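B., you asked whether I could sanity-check this one before it goes into the benchmark set. Here's the sequence:
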Amino acid sequence: MWTESACDPWMPLAAQVTYYAYDIYQDMMAFIQEFMGILGIDGHAETRDVTQSPLTQQADMALMLKTLPCLEQIDKTASLRLLEAIYATHVLVSFPAQSLCGRKKGMVENYEQRFLDLIQAKPWIVQKFTFATELAFLITKQPDKDFAEH
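And here's what the prediction gave me:
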């Protein structure tokens, strides 16, 4: 059993943190909403196509884990539009470092180059993190400049 101040065993954050989750799959969002309710996590899970329906919720951190490769299969311009539209100071973007079979196939190099090309004109601060199964980039936006249109 978790106490209210430590209700999230994966990310032990302050009790006043609210989680927002978005995905196009209704059953997944229903599961996440129920899961957060069972654990007593303050959160909202919503079925939403974030490429078509812009987010308005301000956040300190947004997680886009292995999302961009899927979006780009449908629309090559969706990734940058979404990254620009996210109203968060920090955005963690990740890419798979290997196939489901465990093969590397140059994925890290390809994803890294594609991502850096995608954001090259942005004034964002970007840090790279390499893990055994994932490549990640932490984008830090400047709220006074990057959130002007919100």
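One thing to flag: Helices lie at 26-39, 68-74, 78-85, 107-119, 143-146. Otherwise nothing jumped out at me.
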